[in-house]
Amino acid sequence: MTTTTNTNGVIAAAAQTKPQEAPAKATPAQMLNSLLNNGAIQQTLKSTLDKNAGAFAASVMNLFNNDTLLQQCEPRAVLAEALKAAALKLPVEKQLGFAYIIPYKDHGVPKPQFQLGYKGYIQLAMRTGEYRYINAGKVYEGELKGERVSDKIIGYFAYIETLNGFSKTYYWSREKLTEHVKKYSKAFQKGSAIWRDNFDEMAIKTVLRNLLSHYGIMSIEMSNALSDEAAPGKLLGEPTDDSEIIVNSDSPDEPEENSAEMQ
């Protein structure tokens, strides 16, 4: 079952939820809790996540209750975005770094958006069964010559090796990465806390995504995930020109760009 099919099933179930199931004058958290307890949604979760359905629902509520900016979004929309992660069997806990729900303002209206973290990309790639190794991370001063000499980060790398022996490494210097996001990332251009406070994680994701999209083996599941993350008219999931990101969290990547290989 594809990501789109799973997600559409959940959205349909959410639409069937009767208003009286939530308490009168319900808070956004109560509304979301009522949606998660809806029979059709629970059935969809169980068919997707089996015994992990309850834990996933609890994690969505925990995420919502601890993010005042996300609480400004319509609960049904939050649920729909969360279940894109459920369809991919990825947790939405921020600290794990697999998938996120990012609130942003679209023409002044708060809206949630599903985003993959770089660990989510690695997880989906490994599920194809086609990779022997896949890794991504920071490069510190001195490591290009063989030995780290300080804690200064000079760049970022991503590496894949498939079972048939093909391998590829990308290395982007910090300067190259910065120039790239200055050109393509609206969030970075606006000085968003997303990039300011999570620069290294965002940088790793950017390099890894470029490597996988150019040379990786892409499953249907992974292609669907990229489609969910990149809505028409946006830069691979970036909010529209009239949108304003309102949360400090993980964010989408930018368009692909030819990358230098690590020597």
Structural commentary:
The chain contains eleven helices and six strands. The protein has 263 residues and is an alpha+beta fold. The strands form two sheets. Strands 2-1-6 form a three-stranded antiparallel sheet. Strand 1 (99-106) and strand 2 (109-116) form a beta hairpin. Helix 2 packs across helix 5 (75-87) and helix 3 crosses helix 4 (53-65). It is globular and about 65 Å long. 40% of the residues are buried.
Strand content: 15-25%
Label the overall shape.
globular
Mean pLDDT reading: 80
Q: Unreliable segments (pLDDT under 50, ≥5 consecutive)?
A: 1-5, 231-259
Share of residues in helices: 40-55%
Gyration radius from CA atoms, angstroms: 19 Å
Terminal Cα separation, in Å? 41 Å
For the structure shown, list the relevant keywords:
263 residues, three-stranded antiparallel β-sheet, alpha+beta
Provide a compact summary of the structure.
The protein is α+β, with helices and mostly antiparallel strands. It has helices at 3-15, 28-36, 39-49, 53-65, 75-87, 118-127, 174-184, 186-189, 193-197, 199-215, 220-229, and strands at residues 99-106, 109-116, 131-140, 153-162, 167-173, 243-245. Helix 1 (3-15) runs antiparallel to helix 3 (39-49) and helix 2 (28-36) runs antiparallel to helix 4.
